[in-house]
Design brief:
It is an enzyme of class 2 (transferase). The chain is an alpha/beta fold. It contains eleven helices and twelve strands. It has two domains: 215 residues, Spore Coat Polysaccharide Biosynthesis Protein SpsA, Chain A (Alpha-Beta Complex), CATH 3.90.550; 117 residues. Strands 1, 2, 3, 4, 5, 6, 7, 8, 9 and 10 form a ten-stranded mixed beta sheet that branches. A two-stranded antiparallel ribbon has the order 11-12.
Length: 345
Amino acid sequence: MSQYKISVVVPTFNTGDFLVETFESFMCQTIGFENIEVIFVDDASSDDYTLDLLEELDSCYSNVSSVFLDVNSGFPGTGRNVGLDLAQGECVIFADHDDTYEENAFEIMYNEIKYENADVVISNYYRVYDDIKIEEETIFDGGRAEVSNISDDLRLFEIGPSIWTKLFRKEFLIKNNIRFLEGMLAEDLEFYIHILFLADKIIYLDDFYSYNYRIRDSWDDKSTIHLRKRETFENMIKGYYKIDKLLIELNKEIYFSNIFRRHFIYWILSLGSSNISNNDKLELIKYINPLFKKQIQITPNFNEKQLSSLTKPILNDDYKKILRNIIRIKKVREFKSKIKSIFKH
């Protein structure tokens, strides 16, 4: 029998300022801190405050471990896999190093996974900005879902891959050798997709908000996902190709569009909003275009009117025209946003 009900794995990197609040949210859990194992995996931080804090937490609490990687991997997948290997809890959850959980998060999710004999329990979350806290809206509109096969409810593909809202039975992960991609992004999406195909029972609680997702997108403080550099886009594409490979291996290519449509739209709009050079954008478009083609071969377009202009140039490998149209889409969206702002005031 496991010593802990839940192991929470937290990859860290130079985030000492946020880490105290994150850790306090673990200590305040109604399930009881003694039932929680906390595993910090530091990705070779250069910040002494972060390193000292992790060492202090490790020495002060018997249920807290701090592991220090010798070389910076630059991606959360490595730390999560290290933590998963060390986890002794019956269930495991993966938190980010700058967010917090609601006090009853672990208790509610653990009880669901335990009494419903589920492999995975998924909850909803709050988006936390400097001056406001907003409930994430989903296609489920406050409903609950119990799924034994993903074909029973395809809406689960519309749920964000955010790994921190998902509690897993550890035995299920180990049995199926489900691990995170390393050295690239979209690792949470690939992990989530793997779960959807292999879990015997998934429970989704749309009306339970377990997590406070801090939005860091200011000029001097950005989360990795908001760092719109060439490397960020490139590493997302690497992850997408891994997911495509997984679908082929599991004979699940029928779900390609369910998985990728919204993520391709996000990628395209993010590329249009980035400040990287046009030459870099062209190289990235060339890299991802085989996947775009696959999407269009399955559906007529991206199911969004503004993006329909991309269909023909994608099929013709006309990378320059794809870029021109992406830039045009960006300008149209900016114009519409300004008009909305004017009428609001």
